[in-house]
Amino acid sequence: MPYHEFQCSKCIPERKQHAVVKGEGEDLTSALPLGYLNTIPGTISERGCAYCGAKHVIGTPMKDVIHLSHGPIGCTYDTWQTKRYISDNDNFQIKYTFATDMKEKHIVFGAEKQLKQSIIESFKACPHIKRMSIYQTCASALIGDDIEAVAQEVMEEMPDVDIFVCNSPGFGGPSQSGGHHKINIAWLNQKVGTVEPDIKSDYVINYVGEYNIQGDQEVMIDYFNRMGVQVLATFTGNGSYDDLCSMHGAHLNVLECARSAEYICNELRRRYGTPRLDIDGFGFEPLGTSLKKIALFFGIEERAQKIIDEETARWKPELDWYNVRLKDKKVCLWPGGSKLWHWAHVIHDEMGMDVVSVYTKFGHQGDMEKGIARCEQGALAIDDPNELEGLEAMENLQPDIILTGKRPGEVAKKIRVPYLNAHGYHNGPWKGWEGWVRFARDIYNAIYSPIHKLSLLDISKDEIPTDKGFETQRMISDADLPDEVRNSPDMREYTGKYNCLKDLRKKTYPPFEHNVLADAV
């Protein structure tokens, strides 16, 4: 078996079955780690809880909604403003967060009175918002507060408001993925079908599993509009509460993040007969194929092809420029969820990078199957890694960059490995043709930033070279490029501004003769 045992986890032998190395000629039956299981006690997992998956991932991107957590203030604070789910109503859902602030006395005597008071106070504080989502936490679930009854009582007293209740306490699943499932089904059961859709086109879709990270959704909707396709509702990025209530009226559900939102698509198909079509907004080839699939469903293939031709002609030369410089660079692809398999192959195919490791914190076996199938031989696949395992993997693999979340990313910086925030992006959006070039630019800037090389110097004993800042200039030297790239107009445009650096000479200052800090002590 290709299991990989971390030195730091030898005291937890069960962890060996959660990491594999993709070997030569192995199929997925022998190269698949165990996944989506309860966290092994003692491993210090970095997973989120089911409440986080419901509120933070799925619920919060809805824009015209008061998002109220019925629980301690810490639960609310932990799921507030940590992703860039932007919206066109001045980011109301990012600016404000609401909680019932449960204390010990509420655990003993109940918190339904506190909940009703908090609901009314929230609506009064934001009179222009008439919709609310209430999220159950471990504390309110354990004492058995009847949130639905309180919400119904408020709606009877305030008939102009509408309230959605999501019972997804933190212990409701092995990870945040359990919360994805619960809010998907709860929304369908409570709200879908309660508002009649406003149909304006012959081609109507729901865009599902899209959360508008730094404007991703707007990029894709622009393509859909150019094809003449109406987006009835987006589940849930920049999504309107009432629009999401009318999801039953679409002709097709277009699914982006299958890990977080396939549940509602499957149920819409079962209950309303709406077909499901999975797409991919990342990478030139996958995006082009996705638009073609949507167009083929509606019989408007020529509209999609026109967009593909225009966007490829505009952005392909710039992607080629980065491909030359990123080729054979090693990347650890540690995004957590579906980006594991959205990116694994296309980063290699279109940027030339080698994926040396993939992992997921809350993905299911299907995510690992697709991710491992798409990455290169020898890649290390890990389920639910902890900080020590991540450090050990980086030290062994020596990646040039990792694509991951904030917590493991900050750990990577401690050992001088650059990272990009795969959850919230650095300079997004990253979807679409232009977005994919922007992603390549962010990777290039991270890898070739001189600050990472300078950070490895010990100024008490090492010489301090002053030419690190000109490494980019050497990278774009004509001698390192293929003829077709060197002679292209785009190449001349990119390199022209650096020509003034060619005559600069290298300088090196001697090291410090003594340790200033030691003298100070």
TrEMBL record:
GO MF annotation list: ATP binding; iron-sulfur cluster binding; metal ion binding; nitrogenase activity
InterPro entries: Nase/OxRdtase_comp1 (IPR000510), Nase_asu (IPR005974), Nase_comp1_asu (IPR010143), Nase_comp1_CS (IPR000318), Nase_Fe-Fe_asu (IPR011290)
Superkingdom of source: Bacteria
Alphabetically ordered keywords of this record: ATP-binding, Iron, Iron-sulfur, Metal-binding, Nitrogen fixation, Nucleotide-binding, Oxidoreductase
Transmembrane region(s): none
Domain Nitrogenase/oxidoreductase component: 49-447
Swiss-Prot/TrEMBL catalytic activity: N2 + 8 reduced [2Fe-2S]-[ferredoxin] + 16 ATP + 16 H2O = H2 + 8 oxidized [2Fe-2S]-[ferredoxin] + 2 NH4(+) + 16 ADP + 16 phosphate + 6 H(+)
Broad class of enzyme this protein falls into: oxidoreductase
Any Pfam family hit: Oxidored_nitro
EC numbers for this chain: 1.18.6.1
Gene3D superfamilies linked: Nitrogenase molybdenum iron protein domain (3.40.50.1980)
Signal peptide: none
Named cofactor requirement(s): [8Fe-7S] cluster
Family statement: Belongs to the NifD/NifK/NifE/NifN family.
Subunit annotation: Hexamer of two alpha, two beta, and two delta chains.
PANTHER family per the UniProt record, alphabetical: NITROGENASE MOLYBDENUM-IRON PROTEIN ALPHA CHAIN (PTHR43457:SF1)
NCBIfam families in the cross-refs: alt_nitrog_alph (TIGR01284), ANFD (TIGR01861), N2-ase-Ialpha (TIGR01862)
Name of the protein in its database record: Nitrogenase protein alpha chain
Gene: anfD
